[in-house]
Specification:
866 residues; alpha/beta; eight-stranded mixed sheet; 31 helices; 61% helix
């Protein structure tokens, strides 16, 4: 190993500014990584292979830069000049990427068409980012060797490696948090890139004016180690990033998976490695403390096992933290940071120490850090591809972690096998503990009295099908989102029926997001319709056979075609034209989902609509606060000015709202529904979901374009460059303020549609009928919201029954109030038959056209009077 002994005097004052420059460079570097990953995902798709492909491309560029320029910088008489030039190159290419990144979206479909093979998709996700980012990533890869060469005259022996790496990585921590929590939300992606480029230029300027000490080759003592440590460095990069990929994927079953979640995980990961490198630099200066490389590697193995064990209890730990911390956004984010620390901190400290030791030992005769960093980054580039799409689905999370723990036993150079036998055995022992522990990394919520039917750990998510005590199958994705069951069938069918009925004669429809398959299955009941369905998660499609009771047309109707793809990528890549496009209920706070609410995506969908095409975007009001909803509505109106809003059902706990973009301000004439629906099978199914006439259909209308424009107001739009929803939507995931019912009530009070806005002027009777239906609906929802809020109802039947009868009296068409009164009367008849009779008599008078009240009244007439 080569050592350059620097004089101790006057080194510290110049040591500090070099470290500050290293930290600033790390800040900009992670800012770039976050922005580039987000921008490229919009073009390549949000499949995990796309995200991991970008990550692998970044590391590959860093490895190439270190390999190409590391030695040249080391032998240069002025590495500071090299460093300044590299920072300028990074900044200039980053500015060029502001225009190049959005253009990639039109290029991707050429190389990665719809339904291309997985191998082809993975190749595109790696090769295109590699080429596009190459000038910047290659320059980035050479900055750390340059900083080490600059700092070397001021540091003892090889300690420059530890200190430069620690400072650069600590700057990356600040870059991760600053970019995600403040900079991107405030100024958007393009301006964030400009800010990072400015930091590059400032680093270059500071280095250019900073007085530097020239290297003095005369006192150097050289001991060539060749490439003995490079395989170990490759392995540490491979194992370290592999641990990150697996841990992030596993903890996604527990945390909220917002943009802030991933920033918390990444920042703790980087903080641990920075602290580990700094700790190595501090402790390695004394001869009293000097662990061998093998023992540091064994410590990394043991720390990884501890992190995995903690991960197994992360669900309980998270619950305790959320209970103890303030009930606020800050408290929830602090809980996620704490979970990240429990899982990541010990392993990454050991990883940082191990890298610093190996990099220090691997410097070649010229003192270059380049080969060491290149080997480490090459391993890091390979890890996302191997651990994400391959090992995780093949082996499961626990066994993949087990391989990482065993891998650290092979880190010490081969020539030290005998001397490092004890630490190797310790690493194997740590892995054995993990193997023997009955630890499950599957987090599945099974309803009380229910059972787990099916589970898959996929590349994108963990998907389960559970059965509740009533016998309903439900789909769970990442232990968070539960879909399906008898209670949601009406809503699921209506999500297809409403937009399809609004079109005069749909021949082809596109469904983005499939859930249990129930909605696209409903499309199969519409005669002559070809339906394409797009689903991001393959395991969701694999589960369809377990929902054949509610989605009977899946797999049986040849006109229903399923595609595994990212929704944005499919929309840009398809050549088809659709009469109706239906976008499923996306969970808005999940990182990546905000891209499905951007103006660019809405415009792309408009580009694949036929002349009279309709676009329907469903929104989960129970997962959106009103400020975020306003942003989405405002953005939707910017592309679909003739928009209308519909309810899927009259639920006050999980209300769903559809934004329907119409080709014009269309009005429907009297009798249009009978002319539109002439298929007996379809009509029978529409009757089952209470959509059998135009009053029932338009009774779900919340408001038209004028009402929506008034609700949305003026303000910014959600765009690819300013993804406001990504940063605002998580608030409701962390801290639920008002209830979904209260949000729905606010919408009802704000949106006041007029019947003449949807029905033609000649349909005066239908207009009055519809207005009565809306009044009944709004009163019914208001009553439901207040009932949910009031937990102290003394006698629900006596208090609610008469009010529901009054609602029926307002609109005899409003069946949602009629059925509950019948049920109340049946229950009341067991104990108070006279009260039940009075309730049924009033109900029969309120709607004399329906016979059920009179029939039930006759059935209980034989009961003794009180």
């Amino acid at each position: 190993m080569e050592e350059r002994i620097a004089p101790r005097s006057s080194g510290f004052p110049r040591f500090v500014p070099i470290m500050a420059i290293a930290a600033a460079s790390g800040f900009a570097g992670l800012g770039y990584e976050i922005v580039w990953t987000r921008s490229l995902a919009n073009s390549l798709g949000h499949e995990l292979v796309g995200v991991l492909g970008v990550l692998a491309a970044l590391f590959a560029g860093l490895a190439l830069g270190s390999a190409l320029f590391g030695k040249r910088i080391a032998v240069s008489p002025d590495p500071g000049r090299w460093y300044a030039g590299l920072e300028v190159a990074i900044g200039l290419w980053a500015l060029a990427l502001i225009g190049l990144l959005p253009a990639l979206g039109s290029v991707v479909p050429v190389f990665d068409p719809i339904d291309a093979s997985q191998i082809r998709q993975w190749g595109v996700c790696f090769i295109l980012p590699s080429i596009l980012l190459l000038p910047a990533t290659v320059a980035m890869g050479a900055t750390l060797p340059a900083l080490e060469a600059i700092l070397a005259p001021y540091a003892r022996g090889g300690q420059a490696v530890s200190w430069v790496y620690a400072a650069n990585t600590f700057g990356a921590v600040l870059g991760t948090l600053g970019t995600t929590f403040w900079i991107m939300p405030a100024i958007g992606l393009s301006r964030t890139l400009m800010l990072c480029a400015l930091i590059n230029f400032l680093c270059a300027s500071a280095m250019a004016i900073l007085p530097r000490r020239a290297l003095d080759p005369t006192p150097a003592t050289t001991q060539r180690l060749g490439a003995a440590h490079l395989p170990s460095l490759f392995l540490t990069g491979f194992l370290g990033i592999g641990f990150e990929v697996l841990a992030v994927r596993t903890v996604s079953q527990i945390l909220e998976n917002t943009v802030y979640t991933f920033a918390a995980l990444l920042s703790v990961y980087l903080l641990g490695t920075a602290f580990g490198a700094a700790l190595h630099g501090r402790l390695d200066r004394t001869s009293r403390w000097r662990l061998s490389t093998g023992w540091i590697a064994a410590s990394a193995s043991l720390a990884c096992v501890c992190g995995v064990i903690a991960l197994g209890f992360a669900n309980a730990i998270t619950a305790l933290l959320l209970h103890a911390l303030p009930h606020s956004v800050a408290g929830a984010v602090a809980a996620e940071l704490a979970i990240a620390a429990v899982v990541f901190l010990l392993p990454t400290i050991a990883m940082g120490m191990l890298f610093a030791r190996l990099a220090q030992q691997a410097r070649d005769s010229s003192g270059s850090l380049g080969p060491a960093l290149a080997a480490n980054m090459a391993g890091a580039a390979l890890a996302p591809i191997v651990f994400g799409p391959l090992l995780l689905p093949l082996l499961g999370a626990k066994n993949a972690f087990l391989l990482i723990a065993l891998g650290y036993a092979a880190v010490a150079p081969a020539k030290d096998i005998k001397r490092e036998l004890a630490p190797r055995l310790m690493a194997v022992a740590a892995a054995s503990v993990l193997f023997l522990l009955p630890l499950s990394l599957r987090f599945i919520q099974v309803p009380p009295g229910g059972e787990l039917l099916w589970h898959r750990d996929g590349v994108m998510a963990s998907v389960s099908v559970v059965r509740n005590s009533a016998g309903d199958n439900m789909l769970e994705v990442n232990n968070h989102f539960r879909m399906g069951g008898t209670a949601s069938v009406q809503s699921d069918y209506r999500e297809a029926d409403i937009p399809l009925l609004l079109h005069p004669n749909p021949k082809r429809a596109l469904f983005l997001g499939l859930g249990t398959g129930t909605t696209i299955s409903a499309a199969g009941d519409h005669p002559g319709l070809i339906a394409d369905g797009v689903e991001l998660v393959p395991e969701v499609v694999e589960s369809f056979s377990l929902f054949d009771r509610t989605a009977p047309n899946i797999g049986r109707d040849p006109d229903i075609r399923i595609h595994l793809a990212d929704a944005r990528r499919f929309v840009r890549g398809t050549d088809a034209r659709y009469d109706v496009v239906v976008a499923d209920v996306y969970h808005p706070w999940v990182d990546g989902t905000a891209a499905l609410y951007t103006r660019e995506h809405f415009a792309a969908i408009r580009g694949i609509l036929s002349k009279d095409g309709i676009f329907c975007q469903w929104l989960p009001l129970h997962q959106l606060d009103l400020p975020t909803l306003r942003i989405i509505v405002r953005t939707f109106l910017s592309e679909y000015p003739h928009a209308r809003a519909y309810l899927a059902q009259f639920s006050v706990r999980t209300p769903l709202v559809a934004l329907v973009g119409m080709p014009s301000d269309k009005k429907y004439p009297d009798g249009w529904f009978a002319n539109r629906v002439h298929d007996g099978r379809l009509m029978q199914r529409l009757e089952a979901v209470d959509l059998a006439d135009d009053t029932k259909l338009f009774g779900l209308l919340l408001g038209g374009e004028k009402e929506l424009a008034s609700f949305a107001g003026a303000g910014p739009l959600n765009t690819d460059d300013r993804p406001i929803v990504a940063f605002k939507a998580p608030r409701i995931a962390y801290v639920a303020g008002d209830s979904p019912g209260e949000r729905l009530l606010s919408l009802i009070n704000i949106l006041h549609p007029a019947p003449q806005a949807v029905l033609a002027s000649g349909a005066n009777v239908e207009q009055r009928r519809l207005a009565d239906y809306w009044r009944a609906r709004d009163r019914y929802l208001t009553l439901g919201i207040h009932t949910v809020q009031d937990q102290a109802l003394g006698d629900p039947i006596r208090e609610l029954g008469p009010q529901l009868v009054d609602i029926v009296r307002i609109s005899p068409d409003f069946d949602s109030a009629y059925g509950p009164v019948l049920a109340m009367a049946q229950q009341l008849a067991r104990t108070e038959p006279d009260a039940a009779r009075r309730l049924l008599e009033n109900l029969a008078q309120a709607n004399p056209a329906r016979p059920e009240a009179r029939q039930l009244l006759s059935a209980i007439s034989g009961l003794p009077r009180q």
